[in-house]
Design brief:
- It is a single chain.
- The chain has 111 residues and is an alpha+beta fold.
- It is 49% helix and 16% strand.
- The protein has helices at residues 2-12, 17-32, 40-52, 66-79; strands spanning 56-61, 82-87, 101-106.
- It has a three-stranded antiparallel β-sheet with strand order 1-3-2, with helices on one face.
- Helix 1 (2-12) runs antiparallel to helix 2 (17-32) and helix 3 packs parallel to helix 4.
Length: 111
Amino acid sequence: RDRYQRRVRDVERGRKAEQVADQVGQQLSAELSHGGCTDEYLADQLVVFMALADGHSSVLTGPLSLHTRTALHFVSLISGAKFSVTPLSDERDADDQPMLNRIECDGIALK
């Protein structure tokens, strides 16, 4: 989020919007190149919906951000939903997180 806000501020500092769009697009492409279907800013938000859903949910994502790990912990505590994270890559990022993960959840079927 802050990363994207910095990009907007860069436009205000005289950078062309096209340059900013190219850079943000390259960053998103790099985040999705690991094989997941979410970037780090979406993964933590999906955790809530996975917990509330009826049945089994699964999503592929890249390295788990601190936000995602925190969401998994607290959403599980609050909702009672059961999550599991399966590393799908031996490759690690700078924070020693696997580059590809599967987050799975048996939701609580909130009605």
